[in-house]
Request: fold
Amino acid sequence: MSVVVEEAQTARIDRLNIRLQALNLFLVGFLVLFLELACIRWLAAYVVFLQFFTNVVLIASFLGMSCGCLAARQPRDWLGYFPYIALGTVVAALAMRVAFRFWSGLSIDVGGQVSPQEVFFGTEYRSPDVAQFVVPIEAVVAAFFVLVALMFVGLGQVLGRAFESYPNRVMGYTLNIGGSLAGIVGFSAISFIQAPPVVWFFISCAGIAYLLYQTGSLVPFRGLALVALVLGLSVPPDWFFPTTDTRWSPYYMVNHDTEARFITVNTISHQKMVPFASAGSSYSLVHLLQQHSGGPPFRDVLIIGAGSGNDVAHALRFGASQIDAVEIDPVIQDIGRHYHPDHPYQDPRVIPHLDDGRHFLRTTDRKFDLVIYALVDSLILHSSYANIRLESYLFTQQAFDDVKRVLKPDGTFVMYNQFRQGWIVERIAAMAERTFGCLPTVLSLPYEESLKTSSPAGFAMIIAGCNSRIGDAFVRHKNFWLDTVPVRNLDVDGFTLSLVSWGWEWCTCFCLRDGLRSMAVCFFLVQPSCCWKPGLWFRWLFCSAAPGW
Reply:
């Protein structure tokens, strides 16, 4: 009788153990994917410029998990190191961010951005030539690659032991894949509701603590490390920077300086809300050129990358009847709704769209007088599996074809940005010419002696489409004046304003040449001799007639 009882107890223990391993297969699958996505999001926000290389975090997490599976039969408990490694990784990331913020002599060199073939927007603000201490991005990536990989070794070891103990391999893989899918869906859901990092890591640490508790490895020091990790992430940055409001969109960490009206994403300066009464004349430029070249106001306007609303505010001032303002980030759009000094989103003529720009272009049935690509630089990868950013899909031949489809016959397509490199301006202008069959107008700010393919470029505006009104106006008048204060431009025709009458000094102009093009726009910055009315001056020339061409 005792033998039968012992066999029954053994069978019961085996069933319980099998159920426990089944739970572990699902739980570890959940934690690996959930924690991997949490690390990608959080490290991209706090480790300077890592948002351009988040696929490194993906590779490191799967490498660590694979090494852990190989260590399944080793007696060393790698999961027990997780609390200390995770806490150390967070401390290292925060220390790096603090050092970069407060030590102006520190520079992170990303691929040599002096004359790069691949541009990482925002990485060029600190020049390695004048920095006291330069750290190559490869060293930063390598350090966090190792830390992230070590974090996932313990989970991989638990996964390997669960697979060895579970009798049905097919069901085991099914449970593990189901847990992985649940981790992806779960993290996507909490990102959608804009939950902060403390929620992400509380869920991850709770799962790790349960696995440690199963094996009796949840000793006080490990528990304290997990608690310290969660409590540290729960401290709002507002405590240290009272004027800064920090929120987490589905794409990145958004810092909004409520006093300066400045928006920073993942430690990189992104945009600033400026009132029409005092600054932001570049947003008015295309409207002024249209007005003073004899064209009617742009009535139906589409703005891709409307952001916090600067372009919307200026389009409203120049008589737009309806503006479709497309913005992909809900947090930035919400900031514009509530904090822009001109309140453009409250105007009934504005229809906000929370959508991807390319998707909106492909699905809308409306026709527009003006389509604007407004500073479309997302500063983040579209996927952790490739080095492609969200805006990359907007600067393609297919996207330009979609723009052409939604434009009215005499419509205008405008793109502007800090394009950083001359070859980017040249490539976009060439693609616009192929799409519309007409030479685009290119304006650049500030003045440069020349804009070469391999040279850095500042702010550039590309005006495309076959409405030649603006180009013809430059041919007739040669020059265009733009005041840096938008309201001063309302009663002044920039084409007919005389330099002599306003006391301006003449400066040399230059041509932007693109391949075999016969003409382009020349522009230059002039300084007032009386120093009371700063502005920008543009000039159109036939480059084929320029000396030395």
Notes: Residues 2-237 form one domain.
